[in-house]
From TrEMBL:
Keyword tags: Chloroplast, Membrane, Plastid, Transit peptide, Transmembrane, Transmembrane helix, Transport
NCBIfam families: tpt
Main location: plastid
Any one GO cellular component localisation term in the record: chloroplast membrane
GO molecular function: organophosphate ester transmembrane transporter activity; phosphoglycerate transmembrane transporter activity
A Pfam cross-reference name: TPT
UniProt subcellular location: Plastid, Chloroplast membrane
Source organism of this protein record: Arachis hypogaea (Peanut)
Protein name stated in the entry: Sugar phosphate transporter domain-containing protein
Residue ranges crossing the lipid bilayer per the database entry: 103-123, 135-158, 170-188, 209-235, 247-263, 284-305, 375-399
InterPro entries: EmrE-like (IPR037185), Sugar_P_trans_dom (IPR004853), Tpt_PEP_transl (IPR004696), TPT_transporter (IPR050186)
Length: 414
């Protein structure tokens, strides 16, 4: 072989070796959902991407490999992302063992869970007190979004969190989430104004049912027998609680059910959304932008639906119901603060625990909210009503567990 051919062969061999050693990076990031308040269930959004350095093509979108453990990436720029709203209970994404937490981390996590539950309790109590004497749920919801928007802009102005640079394609991608977030919170407040807090949250335990139905209809996902079985106590418990509810009201019942449909429709729709951008939104900024846009979207709708109801004459009418103007304003501000704060604490918890643990914690949170509202408002509960609520919440817990069971792959016969 001539020296020229030998050199050419050596060069080609070296290039092939270099190409085979180019790394492929797969990574999956779990960031928070509006738990409804992206959703009421407070479940995460996921950004999934794969950066492939080989083949001469640019980075492409892919699902994360189950074989490669997740690890942080800082150097490469993400050129595409896919917004995936997890279902009411996110599925486990790897078999990676969980490292035991230290005592300080356990105490910190316990404090955050306690704060999360406490903020939820106060939000539901203050919100119910306001809606009881000021029956304008659209105005109340718009005020809560507006107050949260002020808090968000204050955080950005003080550089406590970086301000995002929103692009047109990102805006188009999150608009369906904005509509669902707005409608979900509005419908929930309508329900809270019509029926007891405990009954609204009992009805909202039906979220897994809507998740399974909508995913089956629009995503072609076939639920397992265990998942379907876990829905039986949920549906049966809610039905029993509804039949024996003292404060039952058809508007309150229908709007709570509609909020379940809205929140889970959001999850199904968002699985189809994708936007190509150089930078992605973190969970806090994603929630912040959705809150601000929800406020902008809801204000004209509120004026059209209810008119201007924050004039002195309407505020004074609350005094006849038991709250003077000062008390009404203070409770409205406290409810709005708790509304925004418990979302942020929920995101902080999600960064410290697995989605499964967060889902179980969310189930416990609903139990705590129902129990505290029954005690505070002295709601009379019959034994059958208590049984129905308990069975429904037990079904939600079972759903959160069986949802993690992976079906065994069918082996082909030789």
């Amino acid at each position: 072989m001539s020296p020229c051919c030998s050199s050419l062969s050596h060069l080609i061999s070296a290039n092939l070796t270099t190409m085979h050693t180019i790394p492929m990076i797969s990574h999956s990031i779990a960031i928070s959902k509006f738990p409804h308040p992206f959703s009421s269930s407070s479940l995460p959004l996921r950004l999934s991407f794969t950066i492939n350095g080989g083949g001469g093509g640019g980075p492409f979108l892919s699902y994360p490999s189950q074989k490669l453990p997740p690890f942080p990436i800082s150097a490469p720029k993400i050129q595409s992302f896919k917004v995936l709203a997890a279902a009411s209970v996110p599925e486990a994404k790897s078999d990676e063992p969980i490292k035991p937490a230290g005592l300080i981390q356990i105490l910190q996590l316990g404090a955050m869970f306690g704060t999360w539950y406490l903020l939820n309790i106060y939000f539901n109590i203050y919100n119910k007190q306001v809606l009881k004497v000021y029956p304008f749920p659209a105005t109340v919801t718009a005020f809560q979004f507006g107050f949260a928007s002020l808090m968000i802009n204050l955080i950005w102005s003080l550089n406590l969190h970086p301000r995002p640079n929103i692009t047109r394609s990102q805006l188009v991608a999150i608009l369906p989430l904005v509509v669902a977030h707005t409608m979900g919170n509005l419908l929930t407040n309508i329900s809270l104004g019509k029926v007891a807090v405990s009954f609204t949250h009992t009805i909202k335990a039906m979220e897994p049912f809507f998740t399974v139905v909508l995913s089956s209809l629009f995503l072609g996902e076939t639920p397992t027998f265990a998942v379907v079985s876990s829905l039986v106590p949920i549906v049966g418990g809610v039905a029993l609680a509804s039949m024996t509810e003292v404060s039952f009201n058809w508007i309150g019942f229908a709007t709570a059910m509609a909020s379940n449909l809205t929140n889970q429709s959001r999850n199904v729709l968002s699985k189809k959304l994708m936007v190509n951008e150089e930078e992605t939104l973190d969970n806090i900024n994603l929630y912040s932008l959705i809150t601000i846009i929800s406020f902008i979207l809801l204000v004209p709708f509120t004026i059209f639906l209810e008119g201007v109801k924050f004039t002195p004459s309407y505020l004074q009418s609350a005094a006849c119901q038991g709250l003077n103007v000062r008390e009404l304003c203070v409770r409205s501000v406290l409810a709005a603060f708790c509304f925004h704060a418990y979302q942020q604490v929920s995101y902080g918890i999600l960064q410290m625990v697995s989605p499964v643990s967060h889902s179980v914690g969310n189930c416990v949170k609903r139990v705590v909210v129902i129990a505290s509202s029954v005690i505070f408002f002295q709601i009379p509960l019959s034994p059958l009503n208590t049984l129905g609520t308990g069975v429904a919440l037990l079904g939600v817990f079972l759903y959160s567990r069986v949802k993690q069971i992976k079906p065994k792959p069918q082996t082909k016969a030789a």
